[in-house]
Amino acid sequence: MTSDKDWMRHALRLAQRAADEGEVPVGAVIVRDNVLLAEGWNRPISAHDPTAHAEIMALRAAGSAAANYRLPGTTLYVTLEPCVMCAGAIVHARVERVVYAASDPRVGAAGSAFSLLDNERFNHAVAVQGGVLAEECGGLLKGFFKARR
The pTM is what? Predict the structure, then answer.
């Protein structure tokens, strides 16, 4: 059985791919029954699309793979805490669980700045776990931004 850390390492490889393409290094994978359903990495610059965050790219691919816009029983692994836009899409997709690495205290919507994924006002609550490989993923982000300054 593959662990949360193993899936997060896969997401970290995708984040590195984003960095290699000049994008903010965030990667995401969606898993169901311990099988990879979809993956994505940040592409807003290259796709000329402000919604092309890693989570959205993975959700789009998962919807296509599952032939359904609802993704019950899935876990989304992402290297950075989801933003408000991504959290909304995750809730609408009915993702069961989100595991993220680095927190985003400025705009994170999984408990840092906002708590949207488990908000009782929505008709679906997502289980959230943060901090899995946080140092590695946070280090990639810090290094990326340091190099750009």
Answer: 0.96
